[in-house]
Batch of 2 targets.
Target 1
Amino acid sequence: WDAVAAWYDGWVGADGSEHHRRLAIPEVLRLLELRAGERVLDIGCGQGVLAPHIAQAGGNYTGVDVSPRLLDLARKHHGGIGRFYAGDACRLYKTPGIEAASFDAVVFLLSLQDINPLDQALQSASWALKPGGRAVLLMTHPCFRIPRQSGWGYDEKRKLTFRRLDRYLTPLPIPMKTYPGKEGGVTISHHRPIGMYVNALAESGLLLDRMNEIASYKDDPAEQEFPLFVGLRAWKLDRGETHP
């Protein structure tokens, strides 16, 4: 991500893209149900666009990312309201400043599909969570929005816009487009069927209690029927506890 940091910051900026502002961040906040004083760990935080929203809600924000350049931008934009650490999402236990069972909530805001392996990332997140804490995952919808393997079509006979899927069940690392800039760079998006997320959460000691599907803000019937994002919330329970 270092190679595309400047391009990404130009697109997303300090406040997030329009998709961040209108859809992704509001859904994360709904799922978090944050209480004042709670500690939130934003995994794959990028430029820290979630930080001001956590601070405004009275929470204490910490962001972690693998890209030093994105972290420099995060500190520039939001260093006064959050702490930012360099670390591997799959090995948070190796990150100075991140301690076991020390966060009330962890968030993957449009980052988990860029992180691999999935099971290690969720186990790492669970390690950082207090018992009774929750994990919130906000992703492009893996059932309908598969890079290079899905798209829109139009049925002329039926006068109907449809969503085309070329594949779904097979996990797939997908190189994204080459981004502009002096260094260029290609990021990898990891497509996984939604059952992989549900099962990996359970295997990490995180019990799913909420799944919200979020349509685009575009005023188009097809866009409203095929969700753009999905939000998942899961809780870390003590051994022997039941669902809260």
Target 2
Amino acid sequence: MANPDHLALLLGEVTSWNASRTQIQAFRPDLMSADLGGADLTEANLREANLREANLAEADLRGANLRWADLNETDLGRAYLSLVDFTRADLRGANLRGADLAGTILTHADLRGADLSEAN
């Protein structure tokens, strides 16, 4: 389950979230199984976040940093993922069906078993 303090901070305001990530270098967000469906997370720093089994369907993550994030079995269906950095992210079994991946960085991302059908 997601850490409720991490979830509240992220949903409060992305600029405050990003400032916290800058100030506390060892901060590793625990957002496992969080319901973030439809959330506006534009340009959020989610580097190394645990988003395993989270709901990010239809979320706006344009320009977000998801380097080294754990997105195993995460629902990213119809999410706005343009310009997202997924470098070395774990996307095994993730649902990316119908997602907008224009300009997305997937360098060394693990996409085994991911559903990319109808994705742009």
